[in-house]
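Sample log: Ribose-phosphate pyrophosphokinase.
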Amino acid sequence: MRGPLKIFTGNANPELAQKIADYLAIPLGKASVTRFPEGEIFAKIEENVRGCDVFLVQSTCPPPNENLMELLVMIDALRRASAERITAVVPYYGYARQDRKDQPRVAITAKLVANLITAAGADRLLTMDLHADQIQGFFDIPVDHLYAAPVFIDYIRELNLKNLTIVSPDTGGIKSARAVAQRLNASLAAIDKRRMTGKDIQVMNIMGEVDGCDLVIVDDIVSTAGSLTEAIKALRANGANSIYAAITHPILAGPAIERISGAPLTELIVSDSIPLSNAVQESDVNIKVLTVAHLLGEAIKRINQNESVSSLFR
């Protein structure tokens, strides 16, 4: 077993950090993260962490640049305070969509952020539903990659949907959708889509039977909801009954809420890896938020006690 376990958080998602601390039955660590008048970030650890096994909870969700910089500054503060080990707990890993050079003269920001976290002094990373699994290989420190699927699966079972079909919104997500479908003993469908521009999606074809079925679309991120709403419309046009969407990271930027409000979606199911804005909470979209605190908390406990966390990856 490592030194004493301590949980700290930045300003990105303190509610989730508190739930994790409650699950572990320990108090949330005392730290202050403020701004200088010109906007620079100042972080101070308000208690002794020398020789401690520290877990810093901080999603790099909107505003991504502010939250990423908070993460880096807090890691540096913990390192200089002589923490024995620092684990960056990043439920939502931002900048992950730029994970390869698919155009000339573009950055690979998923790798850049991995370098920054490592250089700041993190000893390992705990994250959830990366946009691409290969991002784990961008790190030179250990990475524990969890999935929110078990939390969604338990809730979907409670819905008691008839003729249940799990839908992947694109061909790249078929592997994840198939794993969920197998756990629920459900059918599988996928959407073959083509991105016309950065904002416009054209649905090309639906692979699988959806007529008369209750559908659950599974994905890792919903940002502007363009892909999601086009998929919902195509599925309804092909005879789908009720349509749910289970998406881990609810960025919900720009026109997302307006688009979802106008789509025939029964319920949007998300995790609390990203806190919902007041505008989203006050909208007329039927949103169900499921906490992943117990999943992250269990992983933290096992990492601290040098126990296997592989069962949590499934």
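Observation: The chain has two domains: 5-146, 149-290.
Observation: The CA atoms of residues 152 and 158 lie 10 Å apart.
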